[in-house]
Fold each of these.
Amino acid sequence: MFVIAHLSDPHLDGTVVARDRLRSVVNYLRAFSRPVDVVLVTGDLADHGLPAEYADVAAELALDVPVLMLPGNHDVSAPLRAGLPVESPGEGHPVHQVQDVGTARFVLLDTSVPGEDHGLLSAESLEWLAGVLAEPVDGPLFVAFHHPPNKLQHPVLDQWILQDAEPFAAVLRGKPITAILTGHVHNGVSTTFAGHPLLVAPGIRSTAPLPFEPAAANGLVDVEAPPGLALHLVADGQPLVTVYRAITSS
Ligand SMILES: [Fe+2]
Ligand SMILES: [Fe+2]
């Protein structure tokens, strides 16, 4: 069995509280009786895109297994490239990557738009993605990025999702994709996009309650809700299984 630990939105900002929320999730993984095969972090790694924040991200996620990271709207391409082990050709924005771990392929897209909170993929990015997805793959194939393209039925968050999703869906439709993995909305979510499972990891830094949940009375984000993660379990010939966990201890 191949195990993916899917983390998202640690928003490290130099504060102890942000660091400890990420650290509690990492400590939880470290206590497993077998290591996960890969850790994937789907963006908003740093809160302000500062070099010192990326140094903290690198230090907190220094694990003995591959750690894949991609940018969110709070990240900034140049310091991210300088501070983290991303494998993306070129310089600056966008930071697209293809990473193979064992037989699994991860296509990591940069859906961020510099200076904006919403997501968007340019025509050039979609062309690049189509070329990558045309390559034959034998193992599980994951497409991961920060901004989900589906509305969460949330009046604020839905302004900041991936815009202009239909050309993106056209590139993904019919491809042998095991699942699409995202973050950004600070909620564990299961839905579909372009005919594929779309699985969103909870926010480590905070949770965004739905408008009708009690915590919504206190604002957009609930910083008291525990951090969480998704564990994606891949077994030969069987459907993908995802387990969501909230981490209540450090
Ligand atoms: Fe975030
Ligand atoms: Fe975000």
Note: The mean pLDDT is 97.
Amino acid sequence: MVAGDNRLSPLVAEGDLYGVLVLLDDEPVELPGEKAALAEALVDLAAIAAGRAASHDELARSYAELRASREVLARTERLRLLGQMSAGVSHDVKNLLNPIGLQLEVLRRRIDRGDADAVRETIARLQEIVRHGVDVVERLRDFSRQDLEVQAEDVDLAAVATSAVELSRARVAQHPAIELRSAIAPVPLVRSRSSELATAVVNLIANATEALSERGVIVVATGHEDGGAWVEVADDGPGMAPDVERRVFEPFFTTKSEGTGLGLAMVYAFVQRHGGRVGLTTAPGQGTRIRLWFPVAQPR
Ligand SMILES: Nc1ncnc2c1ncn2[C@@H]1O[C@H](COP(=O)(O)OP(=O)(O)OP(=O)(O)O)[C@@H](O)[C@H]1O
Ligand SMILES: [Mg+2]
């Protein structure tokens, strides 16, 4: 708009005032009709341009703020994971050292008594604890090795699932009332890694076996959908309470006295690394189903 004396024009765009356009001349400015309309259009255009420039600045500022807060969040998340990791490691180390200390004390008394059989029994217990310690350390080492690089290959999910089932048979057979069933169908090749996939499925079967407490059915199945193929392990065990379900993929989260809580965290990290997805379906009393999905390999 051109103001009353044609000299002052507020620059207004979408209700915001961005400045004032001042026409300066020696004489009072008197614009004839056509020029007044042109001046008015120029004022409007200038207002729109000023408005755009201002919103661009604001957008740039918002982006910068967003980037900064994302960095803070990533740092916080890293610290949180480090905290979780140290808490988990110290928990595991304490869980090893306490029983070792106790057993050594028992050992000393038994040696004093000169009871050779009892001494041997205590040594066997100590060896068992050390074995568990080695187990924990190996898991940790595997976990820290994980992020090195993505070595993907074309993988036959059905073949890997079948060998994981065979590898698990002996372990499951220790519980005569647990049945390990295979519903493995041929599926297209996917991008993954055979060795890690086999370990992941063995891990899932181990979890199912532990959850079943002596009785139930574990089914290992494969299938394909959505441009990918999957392998899943389902059990008809106790399922998970919502607060357990929420945390199972966190490193060191475990509800078991002897667990490291790294099993599912490793499975999750491995699947993510290959562009796959992990699906978890569970409810208290409804069993648990964990499905690992990978994208189909491109023909080459
Ligand atoms: N099939 C399942 N049914 C019920 N709960 C499960 C099942 N699988 C996993 N969970 C829960 O998830 C937790 C985390 O599992 P994860 O495999 O990561 O560690 P873990 O089994 O406790 O320890 P580790 O794998 O070292 O033996 C378990 O402690 C258990 O509470
Ligand atoms: Mg486990």
Note: The chain is about 55% helix and 20% strand.
